[in-house]
Amino acid sequence: MKCNINTNNEITHFWEDDSNAPEGSLSCNATHSINAFIDNDGVVKHIYNLTDGVVGLTTAGKTYNSLQYARNREAEYPSIADQLDDIYHNGIDEWKKTIKVVKDKYAKE
């Protein structure tokens, strides 16, 4: 049995007869890694697995997804140099206001 998976990690098609399945289809009777990231130690971790026709979130995937807010914050925070410059020129209270905008936009879940 073969299947296809869409970008939302949902199985979209099954083919009972493997010969009818298009190239690139996955065997649904095996385990396949879907989506991955590299952790801080340089180790590849998988977010989803396809096992016996079922897409499931891995333990590493649960952790990765739960920390999305932190990755979003990091991308939007000003650089440390800019933050220190802001504190020097405008004071700590103005810096807190700047940082709060990003923290509020990407709140911890």
Ordered list of secondary-structure elements with their pairings:
Layout: E1 2-5, E2 11-15, E3 26-27, E4 31-38, E5 44-51, E6 54-57, H1 59-66, H2 68-76, H3 80-90, H4 92-105
Antiparallel strand pairs: 1-2, 1-3, 4-5, 5-6
Describe this structure as you would to a colleague.
The structure is a single chain. With 109 residues, the chain is of the alpha+beta class. It has 2 domains: 2-66, no CATH class; 68-105, no CATH class. It has 4 helices and 6 strands. The protein has helices spanning 59-66, 68-76, 80-90, 92-105, and strands spanning 2-5, 11-15, 26-27, 31-38, 44-51, 54-57. A 3-stranded antiparallel beta sheet has the order 2-1-3, with no helix packed on it. A 3-stranded antiparallel beta sheet has the order 4-5-6. A hairpin with a 2-residue loop joins strand 5 (44-51) and strand 6 (54-57). It is rod-shaped. The mean pLDDT is 85.
Question: Which structural category fits the helices and strands?
Answer: alpha+beta
Which word captures the global form?
Answer: rod-shaped
| Measured distance between first and last alpha carbons | 38 Å
Which stretches are poorly predicted, pLDDT < 50 over at least 5 residues?
none
Short description:
This protein has helices spanning 59-66, 68-76, 80-90, 92-105, and strands at 2-5, 11-15, 26-27, 31-38, 44-51, 54-57.
List keywords for this structure.
single chain; 3-stranded antiparallel β-sheet; 6 strands; rod-shaped
